[in-house]
Specification:
The chain has helices spanning 4-50, 70-73, 177-202, and strands at 64-67, 78-85, 88-100, 105-113, 118-125. The protein is α+β, with helices and mostly antiparallel strands and 211 residues long. The protein folds into two domains: 1-50; 53-202, no CATH class. A hairpin with a 4-residue loop joins β4 (105-113) and β5. The N and C termini lie far apart (64 Å).
């Protein structure tokens, strides 16, 4: 029986290991759920900033199609949220649209109304230079807000570039690459929507769940 203490110690260590693993798993699950909930709340807030609830009567977060157009929208798969009102299409929101900035990819969310005008755009994530390229964030400047209401006709498609490249849109002092990338990403989104909007809305909208 001289090995009994060692056996007991081994059993206790095993139990503590199982308990510890269980606590880590529960903690991870709780953290993941909180992150997902926070991301959903942020996304919903962004959608409502660009497309007020009075204009949409469906739950856009559950009305989703996914498209693969990396050569246009940048991401391997792009999620498209669809907005309707009384069964008629109102807008599509592309997320993410990937534009290549100065320091890496810029992730955008882009809302396009059914008539082809931009309802708005926001930056989801980027690694651009603080104080320069980060002015694409709505928290840093109102630059990105000026795109609301623009389309491929206003300004003309040929003018969808920064002023340094002969286009319509302002760049930032000391930072041209970043706004240039965003303008290209927004133009690509508008062009894709113009070509594919019928296909995007051809699937029936999902049934709203009761309660």
């Amino acid at each position: 029986m001289r090995n009994l203490p060692a056996l007991v110690s081994s059993i206790l260590l095993g139990l503590f290991g199982v308990l510890g693993a269980g606590l880590v798993a529960l903690s991870h699950q709780g953290t993941a759920e909180r992150i997902a909930r926070n991301e959903r709340e942020v996304l919903l807030r962004q959608l409502e900033e660009m497309l007020p609830r009075a204009q949409i009567d469906n739950d856009m977060l559950t009305d989703i199609v996914e498209v693969s157009a990396p050569e246009v929208l940048g991401a391997a798969m792009t999620r498209v949220y669809r907005g309707w009102h009384q069964g008629q299409p109102v807008a599509a929101v592309f997320s993410p649209v990937i534009a290549q900035g100065y320091s890496g990819p810029i992730r955008l969310i882009v809302a396009v109304r059914y008539d082809g005008t931009l309802a708005g755009a926001r930056v989801l994530a980027h690694r651009e230079t603080p104080g320069l390229g980060d002015k694409i964030e709505v928290e840093r400047s109102d630059w990105i807000l000026d795109f609301a209401g623009k389309s491929l006709l206003n300004p003309p498609a040929s003018a969808w570039a920064v002023k340094r490249d002969g286009g319509h849109f302002d760049q930032f002092t000391g930072a041209t690459v970043t706004p240039r990338a965003v303008v290209r990403g927004l133009k690509a989104s508008l062009e894709y929507f113009s070509d594919k909007k019928l296909q995007l809305f051809e699937q029936p909208q999902p049934e709203e769940s009761a309660g």
